[in-house]
Structure formats: C-alpha cells, structure tokens
C-alpha cells in the first residue's frame, strides 16, 4: 500500500510518531533504495521512538495482509491487462505497473471520497521532532541519517501527495515512480493513454474499494487479540 492508504488505519490517532512509523519504510526506500533497516523487533525506553517502531511493524503487517489478499491479486492483474495496450515499446514491466497503479488508485479513492485528508497526514509528519527521528534512525542501524533527513524535509515541503486527489494525475505519479528504475518509461502519448485507462478503472474500483480496508482492519484486530 502507498502512503495515504497506510495512514487510513491510523487517521484518528493523536500519536504523530506512530503515523510516521507506518510510512517510514517506504519513505526510506524513496530517499535511498539501498537503505535496509529492521527495527521492528527493537525496544526503546523513549515512548516516541517506541511509537515509531510500533508504526513500522504495523506497516509490515498491513502490507502483508494487502499483498496476500484476493482484492490486490485481482485488481493488480486486471489493471495490468488494461494497461498493456499503452505499454507497447515501454521498458516498464506490466506486472509492476499494475501493482503500483492499484495502490495509487486506492490513495486517490480515499481522498476523493473523504475518508482521509492529505493535510491530516502532513500535520502528523510536521509534528515529529527532528532529533527523535534522527535518534530512531541511529538506533535502527542507519549510518548516515542526514541522507534521509534531507529527503524528508523536501517531502514535507513539496506537499506532493495533494496531487493524488486529481485522478488524471495518477498516471503522472506512476511515471515518477517508474523513473526511479527506468530513465524514460513512457512517451507523452503513452502517459495520456494510461491516464484514460486509470480514470476508467477507478470507476470500477470505487464501489468496492472500502472492502479491502475493512478486511485488513479486521485482520489487524484479530492479530492484536
């Protein structure tokens, strides 16, 4: 799941560090894909750092439930098939595109149906103190936290996730993600065709998308009992 879908499960919490923890694994990958940390089994006496660790563990749990779900398997496959005509000549792997597109559409649907707000998400990130995040990264084994901290400040400043509310921008977000792997993933014509396909597929997902969030919420509840 993407940033805003992870936020959905803790949209009502007042603990900003827990919220940051739920998206930190993906933020770190975006900052530097060579960063590999496994803090989920650690314990720390500072409750704020322990909240980051707890959020990190929840991220892993949510992704595990999501990626093993019939919902994800079905819609990522259908999106792959729908997008295939737009990918002729592109180096992007169709399975990869179907996977990422399904996650971005879920973020878009959460925003456009009012389930969450982008400002609510960023407010949590802004509430976390820099030195606590830095200490967490050191404690987790990161050698140079400054690499992440610089990226994180830019991520907060750009407020880029506001663009996800515009369904037509989902194809652009897909291109940005693909550009981390391929320098020129799509032509302008391919991007335009993908945008039409995604807009149409979003309409198919809208009546049923909440089901996957309910399923995961139930699984998390069972796990905690």
Helix content: 55-70%
**Integer-rounded radius of gyration:** 18 Å
> What gross morphology would you assign?
globular
Oligomer: single chain
Low-pLDDT parts are: none
- Order of H and E elements: HHHHHHHHHHH
Q: Number of DSSP helices?
A: 11
Question: Describe the biggest sheet?
Answer: none
Whole-number mean pLDDT: 95
Organism: Mucilaginibacter jinjuensis
Protein name: Acyl carrier protein phosphodiesterase
Commentary on this structure:
This protein is mainly alpha-helical and 225 residues long. It has one domain (3-217). The chain contains eleven helices and no strands. It is globular and about 55 Å long. 34% of the residues are buried.
Quick overview:
With 225 residues, the chain is mostly helical. It has helices at residues 3-8, 16-31, 47-67, 70-83, 94-112, 118-126, 130-139, 145-158, 170-178, 188-205, 210-224.
Summarize this structure as a short list of keywords or feature phrases.
225 residues, mainly alpha, 11 helices, globular
Blueprint of the fold:
Elements: H1 3-8, H2 16-31, H3 47-67, H4 70-83, H5 94-112, H6 118-126, H7 130-139, H8 145-158, H9 170-178, H10 188-205, H11 210-224
